[in-house]
Amino acid sequence: MRPKIYLFGDSITEQSFGDGGWGAALANHFARTVDVVLRGYSGYNTRWAFKVFDKVFPAAESGGSEPPLAVTVFFGANDACLPDGYAAFQHVGVDEYKRNLHSMASSLKKRWPKTLILLITPPPIDEDERLRHPYAENPSGLPERTNEAAGAYAKACVEAAGECGIPVVDLWTKMQQYPEWSKAFLSDGLHLTGEGNKVVFEEVMKKLNEGGISLGNLRADLPVLADIDHGDPLKAFQ
C-alpha cells in the first residue's frame, strides 16, 4: 500500500536501523506514509554491490509494482581501503569506483525513470581511531584507510552524481566543517555516532525535500484517527 524508499549501501547503511540510526530516523519520519527498506551489506564495495545488484533489486519487482520514491546509494568507505593494507581485498580503484556508481545509477534510472536516486559519499576517516579499532589482524601497525583516500573517493562520487544528473550528499566535506568532527561523528574512526547519524539523516532529508518527497506530498495509507466518526467508526473503512 505504501511507496518505498530503498537504502542501498555498506555497513554504514546496514547499521542505520540501530538505535539513533539515520535509517531508523527516516522510517520514523515517514511512518504510515512510506516503507523505508534496508538493503545494507557490511564490508561491501561497489564492485561487489554491482555484482549482486539484480538480486537486491529484482527485475520482476521493478515491473510488477510501483517504483520506489527514492534509492540512496551509499558506498565508498570500503572501496577506499588502501591497496597495501590489511583490508586490501576490499579495495577498488577510484576510477572503477566511479564507473560502478555510474552503472548503478544508470541501471536504477532505466528501471525506474521517475525514482529519485541519491548518492552519498563516504564519510571522513579518523586514522588514529582506525588503529584502535581494527577488525582483523594488523601486523603493519598502519591504518587500513586514510582520510586523504576517502576524500578522493568522495570527490569521485560527487563528480559521478553531476555527470549522471542526480543529487549527492557530500558527507566527507559536510562533516569536516564542524569542530572536533572526528570525535563527534565517528565511533571508531569510520562508523557513525548518534550525532553522525543525525548529520546523514538531515542531509538526506534535504535532498528528499528538494526532490518533492515530503510529508506534505504524501498520504497516510489508511484512515487516520482524526477522520474516524466517533458515532459510526466503521463508516471510515467502507
From TrEMBL:
<protein>
    <recommendedName>
        <fullName>SGNH hydrolase-type esterase domain-containing protein</fullName>
    </recommendedName>
</protein>
<dbReference type="InterPro" id="IPR001087">
    <property type="entry name" value="GDSL"/>
</dbReference>
<dbReference type="InterPro" id="IPR036514">
    <property type="entry name" value="SGNH_hydro_sf"/>
</dbReference>
<dbReference type="Pfam" id="PF00657">
    <property type="entry name" value="Lipase_GDSL"/>
</dbReference>
<dbReference type="InterPro" id="IPR045136">
    <property type="entry name" value="Iah1-like"/>
</dbReference>
<comment type="similarity">
    <text>Belongs to the 'GDSL' lipolytic enzyme family.</text>
</comment>
